[in-house]
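#lab-general

N.A. 3:47 PM
ok so I finally got the sequence cleaned up, no stray characters, all 196 residues accounted for. can someone with queue access submit it? mine expired

B.Y. 3:52 PM
send it over

N.A. 3:53 PM
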Amino acid sequence: MASNKNTIFFAFVALLLVCFVKSEGDQVQVRKMCEKTRNTNLCVGVIQPDSRSELKTNYTGLVKIVTNAALTNATNVITYIKDRMSHEKNETTSRGLDMCLHDYEIDVIDGFTNGLDLLNDTRYQDLKTNEAYEMLQRQIGEGAMTALNCVEGPFLRLDDPLRNATKMVWTIGMIASDFISLGHCNKSNCFTRNNY
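B.Y. 4:20 PM
back already:
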């Protein structure tokens, strides 16, 4: 009986060790891929907690993870804007917030959602094709770039939390764009954006 318990215990320990080694390997792989983007630490911070390890093995999967994170952040920004609008007394700031809300609800959310829809369509999962590259860059890139309209609004103070939240949405969206570009060329000498 004791021998049976020992065998089960050692099998369990071996299984944990295999899971740990795989997890360490995934972390190294994610870091290597993120080093090719414009913000390595944010990229790793977005991808590493995602439990879908099968998506971490290729650029298409990474685009899905990062675009989902951008969409979640954009949704949180919308909630923040709506809450802030309900308390805002300054008419100029209210108009600016309303413009931001419109941009986020229409272009930012649509860009990221449409990008995710394309990634779920088998015709666009191969990032090496020009059609997939162009369609995904157009949708996800447009979502990210539209978020910047809110940052550039003169109604926001430089230290405004909305400015930082919007920059975060833009940066995460542009990391997805980096992965689309990397997946399109998929070469070690591919253009990278470390210098941003």
